[in-house]
Design goal:
CATH superfamily: P-loop containing nucleotide triphosphate hydrolases
Strand order of the largest sheet: 2-7-1-8-9
Bound molecules: adenosine-5'-diphosphate, guanosine-5'-monophosphate
Order of helices and strands: EHEEEHEEHEHEHHEH
Helix content: 40-55%
Number of helices: 7
Structural class: alpha/beta
Radius of gyration: 16 Å
Shape: globular
Distance between the termini: 16 Å
CATH architecture: 3-Layer(aba) Sandwich
CATH topology: Rossmann fold
Number of strands: 9
Strand content: 15-25%
Largest sheet: 5 strands, parallel
């Protein structure tokens, strides 16, 4: 296992339905590097299968804003104009680095731009699907959002796609296995640069 240290940050963004959550799960389980998923805080209610502290830290509005006022967030955003806030707690980065790992952030474009300002060397990856129709198809097939919410996510996706060129890497999630391999290769190369 190669060594990791402070400031090892990976940021993954992409349209809702592009496969970010699926990829993070696979990568954390299988990469040759130590990847630690930064568990985001959110005020959105949990989906039936989601677990507090594993998928997200599910907070009330009051709890979220308390942490915000205490300066505990590296970044935060209201995502999809949904009225729900999402944010990365600085403590999640520390948790990853204490384990000698890379902090793996799966966050939206607004948050990613803020992380890029603070950590210009962060490894930033934008995930696309072979066509726009495909992330919409996957989002609908996942079956976790109402039509209203789906429409908001699709509108946001259009804006997000326009910012893909702000990321260091763009990966197309066509076959999951290939996307996993491609991201593993990116991270191994970035690790080598840091160890050089
Ligand atoms: P996101 O976190 O980007 O919103 P998810 O990881 O929830 O996306 O994936 C959306 C849906 O697409 C899920 O049902 C997932 O199983 C499926 N999916 C993910 N990657 C692929 C892929 N490469 N090919 C087909 N379906 C996929
Ligand atoms: P979902 O509600 O489907 O879990 O996530 C919705 C969106 O919120 C995704 O685009 C995801 O990348 C983004 N997101 C999740 N956690 C964070 C976070 O900590 N900060 C920001 N800015 N966005 C996040």
């Amino acid at each position: 296992m190669v060594q990791s240290g402070p400031e090892r940050i990976v940021v993954l963004s992409g349209p809702s339905g592009s496969g970010k959550t699926t990829l993070v799960r696979e990568l954390v389980a299988r990469a040759d590097l130590k990847l630690v998923k930064a568990v985001s805080a959110t005020t959105r209610p949990p989906r039936p299968t989601e677990v507090h502290g594993d998928d997200y830290w599910f907070l009330t509005d009051v709890e979220f804003h308390e942490k915000l006022n205490n300066g505990e967030f590296l970044e935060h955003a209201e995502v999809f104009s949904s009225g729900y806030f999402y944010g990365t707690l600085r403590s999640e980065l520390e948790r990853a680095w204490k384990q000698n790992g890379w902090a793996f952030l799966e966050i939206d474009v607004q948050g990613a731009l803020k992380v890029m300002q603070q950590y210009p060397n962060a490894v930033t990856i934008f995930l696309q699907t072979p066509s726009a129709a495909e992330f919409e198809r996957r989002l609908r097939a996942r079956g976790t959002e109402s039509e209203n919410v789906i429409q908001r996510r699709l509108a946001t996706a259009e804006r997000e796609l326009q910012l893909a060129d702000r990321y260091k890497y763009v990966v197309v999630n066509d076959q999951l296995e290939s996307a996993v391999s491609e991201i593993c290769a990116i991270l191994m190369a970035e690790e080598m640069v840091r160890n050089a």
